[in-house]
Design a protein that fits this description.
By secondary structure, the protein is mostly beta strands. The chain has 2 domains: 16-21 and 49-56 and 66-273, Aminohydrolase, N-terminal nucleophile (Ntn) domain (Glutamine Phosphoribosylpyrophosphate, subunit 1, domain 1, 4-Layer Sandwich); 282-524, Porin, CATH 2.40.160. It is 13% helix and 43% strand. The strands form 5 sheets. The chain has a 14-stranded antiparallel β-sheet, with no helix packed on it. The chain has a 7-stranded antiparallel β-sheet with strand order 5-4-6-3-14-13-15. A 5-stranded mixed β-sheet has the order 1-12-11-8-7, with helices on one face. It is globular. The two termini are 22 Å apart.
Length: 530
């Protein structure tokens, strides 16, 4: 099932942010030989996972097969003590070293040591780690030697203030980034990947503009989860595909991040936005009353009505995701969905939902969705409009998005579509962000086992709301499809992306204005035979 991130309901006085990532096809297996990367939501992917390093680590018979534990807590007077308990629950994830960094909003206090959590910390030490927020780490080395200097969390005092990072996972482009940073004058104190992230975060600018967390995350590749603490914030980050775990929970009025939910049990906390529902693509009750003219009422979690593409990769024409799918529309909703045929060629619908990609609502308002579908034997025209407040804990500033798709199938072997999206995010005060995009694609079935599918798109993220950079993006994709047998597709694909601003990372050469991607996708799908 695809993983889609939902924004937790966080009071504005608690600046905790969760970035989670990516979205892919159900039942999809991907093999890629590429010069670029395939697009995905929020942070781009797919990324490689450090399989060689993981395999080498797994071959060590004297170590358990887990990779580090991270823990963070915000808004509790005994933050360090609860972090100790959390690390104790995560001890099975690493036994080399342990560390805790706490903060009272002004000063960081840290202690790290070699060995198990109870060996590194005792009562007096914990009492010295005062503050209302803390992060902790228990280490199992996948990169870097087993020395105290490699123990985490790592800290730095830089132009952007004090930062602390606890990291689980591997960066597959660590060597390239390290060489780039050293060439620019950075001095490394450890041999672990985590310090690279710290150096990138500490940079005040990136490519001539102010550096942001999103920009830093776009520069790193691999399988990872992070807990980052600043003087005022606790931030959780996962890689685009969620290969490394990170859960969000609460204990009393405090927010907690942990590699595993077993840590919540030990501190009498509870998971927020449980992952089971988050990872289920759709789950809803459906009622179709007799003698109601075809009215259908659904309640639960369902995928959005907007967009030309669907989540299941095998049902799309291209292997990589379109710009409009990734940047302009929601993925799923939770709430009420209705539809009713008003004419033999027209069906209308009404939705009342918890906003964009939320199972639990992040404010007290609701998002309204209006849908319409005009269908004939060869032409289908879909209209979708969503409006509602999407900001955590406030109903001020509405988000609007209009999506329309025209699908034409003149013959059984030829199809094409046009897709247009326009969105507005109103600020709580004056002002707004805007984005708009146009896409066109076609599919030509040459025979029963081979098809070609070109796609062309233009996307204007005028204010950088979706991508984090104000830019105009274009992309062209050409996909060949081979049906190897029932349920197995092979899709070689070429893709070129352009931007009017440097946006695409390429080795150590910094950001570029274009990117070329070659890939070979293998798609396996299964289900009841039709």
């Amino acid at each position: 099932m695809p993983f889609a991130a939902s924004q937790p309901a966080i009071p504005p006085s608690i600046p905790l942010r969760e970035m989670a990532v990516g979205r892919g096809g159900s039942g999809q297996l991907g093999l890629a030989a590429r010069a670029g990367r395939v697009w995905n939501r929020v942070v781009r992917g797919p990324q490689t996972t450090g399989l060689l390093q993981d395999a080498a680590a797994a071959a060590r018979p004297t170590h358990p097969k887990h990779y580090c534990g991270v823990f963070g807590i915000y808004g509790h007077p005994n933050a360090a003590e609860l972090t100790y308990c959390g690390l104790y629950a995560l001890q099975h994830r690493g036994q080399e070293s342990a560390g805790i960094v706490s903060s009272d909003g002004r000063q960081f206090r840290a202690h790290r040591g070699m060995g198990l959590v109870p060996q590194v910390f005792n009562g007096p030490l914990l009492h010295e780690l005062v503050g209302h927020m803390a992060i902790g780490h228990t280490r199992y080395s996948t990169t870097g030697e087993s020395y105290l200097r490699n123990a985490q969390p790592l800290t730095v005092d830089c132009a952007r203030g004090q930062l602390a990072v606890a990291h689980n996972g591997n960066l597959t482009n660590a060597l390239l980034l390290r060489e780039e940073l050293e060439a620019a004058g950075s001095i490394f104190q450890t041999t672990v990947d985590s310090e690279i992230i710290l150096h990138l975060l500490a940079q005040p600018s990136c490519n001539g503009s102010a550096n942001t967390l999103v920009q830093t995350m776009r520069r790193i590749q691999g399988a990872f989860s992070l807990v980052i603490m600043t003087e005022k914030e606790l931030i959780g980050v996962r890689d685009p595909h969620g290969f490394r775990p990170l859960s969000l929970g609460r204990v009393d009025d405090a927010w907690v991040l942990s590699s595993e939910t077993c840590a919540f049990d030990l501190i009498h906390g509870a998971e927020q936005d449980p992952g089971a529902m988050r990872n289920i693509q759709q789950a809803y009750f459906s009622v179709k009353p007799p003698k109601a003219g075809g009215l259908q009422i659904d309640f639960g979690k369902f995928v959005t009505s907007a967009g030309a593409e669907v989540i299941e990769t095998h049902s799309n024409w291209n292997y990589s995701r379109s710009l409009l799918f990734a940047w302009t529309i929601p993925y799923y909703h939770f709430g009420l969905r209705t539809s009713m045929p008003l004419h033999k060629n027209f069906t209308a619908g009404f939705q009342l939902v918890n906003g964009w990609n939320n199972v639990e609502d992040n404010n007290s308002g609701k998002t309204v969705g209006l849908t319409g579908a005009l269908t004939t034997s060869k032409v289908s025209w879909y209209h979708n409009y969503y409006v509602g407040p999407e900001k955590p804990d406030t109903n001020k500033g509405l988000r609007h998005v209009y999506d329309t798709v025209l699908l034409v199938t003149p013959t059984p072997k030829v199809s094409f579509y046009l897709n247009y999206d326009y969105g507005v995010e109103k600020f709580a005060g004056a002002g707004s962000n805007h984005w708009t995009g146009v896409a066109g694609a076609a599919r030509f079935a040459v025979n029963d086992w081979f098809a070609l599918a070109p796609r062309l798109e233009w996307f204007n993220d005028a204010d950088g709301f979706s991508t984090g950079t104000a830019q105009k993006l274009k992309e062209f994709t050409m996909t060949a499809e081979f049906k190897l047998k029932d349920g197995i597709l092979m899709r070689p694909e070429y893709r070129r992306d352009w931007s009017d601003n440097p946006f695409f990372e390429r080795g150590t050469g910094g950001s570029q204005k274009n990117q070329d991607t070659l890939l070979l996708g293998l798609v396996a799908y299964f289900g009841p035979k039709k």
